[in-house]
Design brief:
Elements: H1 2-5, E1 13-22, E2 26-32, E3 36-43, H2 48-62, E4 66-75, H3 77-85, E5 93-95, H4 99-109
Parallel strand pairs: 3-4, 4-5
Antiparallel strand pairs: 1-2, 2-3
Domain STAS: 39-84
Pfam families: STAS_2
Protein name: STAS domain-containing protein
């Protein structure tokens, strides 16, 4: 986890963005650089599949994806699995790790 925190100061430009998914709870936006995805809102069982699809789309195009979670307010286990536990694709690099992601990761890793 400490390695991902070292990238917290990296700049992500909100200009030139592409909305990959949006609902009442969550916005998933591809930003500049193009391999970066910004998450804003709440991730739960109702939208974690959309997150997986968006990350797969960016990974297929760019090979790797960075995910900025600074504006994420909530994440449940289904979303955590998409971000950190999926063996089917390369794990995304986390930028600006939100407190909710850190708390859930700490709890899941201590089991």
């Amino acid at each position: 986890m400490a390695e991902r925190n070292a990238h917290a100061a990296e700049a992500v430009s909100p200009e030139a963005t592409l909305v990959l998914y949006e609902d009442d709870q969550l916005s998933i936006v591809q930003a500049t650089p193009p391999d970066t995805v910004l998450l804003k809102g709440d991730i739960d069982i109702t939208n974690s599949a959309a997150l997986a699809d968006a990350l797969a789309q960016v990974t297929a195009r760019w090979g790797q994806v960075s995910v900025d979670t600074a504006e994420l307010r909530f994440i449940d286990v289904s979303g955590w699995r998409v971000l950190l536990a999926s063996p089917a694709r390369p794990r995304p690099r986390l930028l600006n790790v939100a407190p909710c992601v850190r708390r859930l990761s700490d709890r899941m890793m201590s089991l």
